Amino acid sequence: MERSLSHIALFAALIAVLGFVPQITLATGVPITAQSLGIMLCGTVLGAKRGALAVLLFLLLVAIGLPLLSGGRGGLGVFASPTVGFLIGFPIAAFVAGLIVERSRAPIGLAAGLGAFVGGVLTLYAFGIPGMALMLDKTLPEAALLITPYLPGDLIKVALTGLITHSLARMRPDFLPSRR
């Protein structure tokens, strides 16, 4: 129990630290950040439940006003911005990524890459696109088109998630709760 709590806190902190990587803000108002890499890693390393809990802890800290989102954003106002769908999708994305890794018998790097893609890209976009459409007063196809500049960076994050998770598994096989 204590180890799980420390892992959850550690990965919530990892998401926050990735917020210090400079963001690129597009006209949509949704920045390209490294934080979605942290979301993917929460799921692939910690597993579905712990990964989602780490993200929920991070979002709770953001909601109470800590400026932990990329660009120093925090507070309830971020939940009324074009990023709202992504924020709502964060814990679900981590859960899906973790579930895929937990259930897969594929090599860990491949399972993590697949989990990161399905959870961290497809699931996240399934929430992010409607949120953008709602907040920007766009149709779903228009919002989907606005999301295309994010795809190359997200695919790089998928590859990094697979590599990082694989490396962790090789260095510390007992560390990966997602594979227990």
Q: What's this, in brief?
A:
With 180 residues, this protein is mainly α. It has seven helices and two strands; from the N terminus they run H-E-E-H-H-H-H-H-H. It has a two-stranded antiparallel sheet with strand order 1-2.
Q: Which terms would index this structure?
A:
180 residues, mainly alpha, Arp2/3 complex 21 kDa subunit ARPC3, two-stranded antiparallel ribbon, 2 strands
Number of helices: 7
Strand order of the largest sheet: 1-2
Report the CATH architecture: Orthogonal Bundle
User: Into which percentage range does the β-strand content fall?
Assistant: under 5%
Helix content: 55-70%
Number of domains: 1
Please tell me about this protein's structure.
There is one protein chain. The mean pLDDT is 93. The protein is globular and about 45 Å long. α5 (108-136) crosses α6 (140-147). It has seven helices and two strands; from the N terminus they run αββαααααα. It is mostly helical. The protein has a single domain (2-22, 29-179), classed as Orthogonal Bundle (Arp2/3 complex 21 kDa subunit ARPC3), CATH 1.10.1760. β1 (24-25) and β2 form a beta hairpin. The chain has a two-stranded antiparallel ribbon. Helices cover 68% and strands 2% of the residues.
Q: What secondary-structure arrangement, pairings included, does this model have?
A:
Layout: H1 2-18, E1 24-25, E2 31-32, H2 35-46, H3 48-63, H4 84-103, H5 108-136, H6 140-147, H7 151-171
Antiparallel strand pairs: 1-2
Helix pairs in contact: 1-2, 1-3, 2-3, 2-4, 2-5, 2-7, 3-4, 4-5, 5-6, 5-7
